[in-house]
Amino acid sequence: MKPVIVVHGGAWAIPDALAEASVAGVKAAALAGIGVLKRGGRALDAVEDAVRKMEDDSVFDAGHGAVLNTDGEVELDAIIMEGETLAAGAVSSVRNIANPVSLARAVMEKTDHVMLTSQGANLFAESMGIPTLPTDSLVTEKERKEWEHYKNYSAGVEELFNSQWGNDTVGAVALDSFGNVACATSTGGIRNKMVGRVGDSPVIGSGGYADNRSGAVSCTGHGESILKVTLARLILFHMDQGRTASDAAGFSLRYMGERVKGGGGAIVVSPTGDWTATFTTERMAWAAIQEDLLYYGVHQSNMHTRVRLSVFI
Ligand code: ASP
Fold first, then answer.
1. N or C, which end of the chain is more exposed by having fewer CB within 10 Å?
2. pTM for the model
């Protein structure tokens, strides 16, 4: 099986000033992920590595650079899942952690549970020896300013989602040379969310899903909408019915738009290597690597760039 990695850096109306850095961030993450796969690593290792890269990159709303809730605090959500055994781990509303995706993996591998939340997730992180960071070290000056600016703004989150709000959730899906798929998604959620609000990202079947029999998906977009249509599972359902990855993602995203008025995006890979990066928001930064070709884009429409990988390494 020829390995594939696809990553996203969040669906929304990314302003020009951030678009270039977002594209650079997803390209770096895809390169990290394919490196793992080419060294014979598993899809699970590749998606964790790619997502960690983006959590560490403060241009994205995950780990460093996360958005703030109404209290000015960072609460992070993440999921990781592998398609061979359907093993999954997730954390929600966890604080003061740089790489929630790795904590989610520890939940998957070291507990009998699928999700740990808030204080319990933090206590577990401590017991695993995962270092705790002061909130301020995760918050960028830009985010603090945006939060100050918007905290008194009372328009609905849904209305704002496709306009000026940055919600650069990150995610990755991969197919490894053993035929296994995996997904991971990580986010700070939506700016000015209520304390304790959990979006789609850490919820199995909504923010992500992976099954060797169907494929792997990582979603981004308006969390409450994604939850209502269980977007990741919906896309895989349509693939099981015979649609291509691209058709299934487009169909499901349009359904979400019609049914609950939510915008968003998804990256998908099938067990045969059929992949897509599809979105209904104005922009979504994404990158994919298959057979030594790097594809990336950020604009709506089918516009993307394709480069032979040797140019990059
Ligand atoms: N889906 C994320 C959330 O609602 C936000 C995003 O993808 O940008 O938490």
1. C
2. 0.94
